[in-house]
Amino acid sequence: MDELAATMTGFARTLRAAGVAADHERTQSLLRALDHLDVTDPDEVYWAGRLTLCAGPDDLPRYDRCFAAYFGGTRAALSRTATTSVTRHLAERQGDGESGDDDGTPAPATASRIEVLRHRDVARLTEAERAEVHRMMALLRGGRARRRSRRFESAHRGVLDQRRTIRDALRKGEVARLRHRRHTTRPRTVVMFVDVSGSMAPYAETLLRFAHALVRNEPRATRVYSVGTRLTPVTAELRHRDPGTALNEVSKVIPDWSGGTRLGEELKEYLARFSARGAIVLIASDGWERGDPELLGAQLARLARQAYRVIWVNPHKGYADYQPLTGGMRAALPYLDDLVAGHSLAAFEQLSERLAHA
């Protein structure tokens, strides 16, 4: 059984590299399904994987190619009827009976339904449910921890403002009142890196919408970059007030959607050009690093010396049985202040609170 689990986990990893949303939960569903099937029958393995690992019709061609390449077999093209049947079955699994009435109309967003949606994995929502979660995410109004700046302001108490006190005395001929000053405060800068590689495809849009909420709340103290095979700044595009418009603009400037992840190289590029001194750094990724994990660890060590806090947001952290076993996560862990979940609206609300009290 351990050999079977290792084989199917490797297959799921191949699918993620190809852009299929074969996340940890879907892989576990496949292994549970195979417990009840004949694993020596290629057809049963094929259909078990297709029904559990694919998230929608766009994944089906990729799945067929990966299955043939990984297991060394070929399959005839499916009929239109079979494809429609599988697609419908996947939609029913994703909706879990909550997608709406029989006529396809989305169900009204009652309080109890919204509470359920807050805790559900966004990768397993229907389009209507995901749109509702994104609408609620646009309403996030989390605060931002503040830091002392170099500027001063007048105050009733604090450090003696000698310059203003002497200036008043020269104007009035005597020291009539002591003037004081204190440091002003400003929001702590947040630098966010959003992984847009194939394995993060089910979560990338939601993460970018969370980034949009951060930029909208503190436009001067937020910087956002997409990471995949290259580092792309997207802060300017996220400044649009409307989330849909902002996401459309972001999609135009990101050249490496659903590719691989070379986070170590991109952090090295960022640190060569910019600084994260005193900032809170958010890295939203599942840790599937295609580059050298040692390079990633070295760059995170540099980043941790500059930043106020380094927080890694991993969608799979929301599951009780998650373990950070990928090379990227093992290299990153020694330099992280926090490893938090990023798979649901509730997780993003908690992250927003963390940023307000960091």
UniProtKB/TrEMBL annotation:
Regions crossing the membrane: none
Sections of the chain in a coiled coil: none
Cross-referenced CDD domains: vWFA
Region span, Disordered: 82-112
One Pfam assignment: VWA_CoxE
InterPro entries: UCP010256 (IPR011195), Uncharacterised_CoxE (IPR008912), vWFA_dom_sf (IPR036465)
PANTHER family given in the database record: BLL5662 PROTEIN, BLL5662 PROTEIN-RELATED
Protein name: Uncharacterized protein with von Willebrand factor type A (VWA) domain
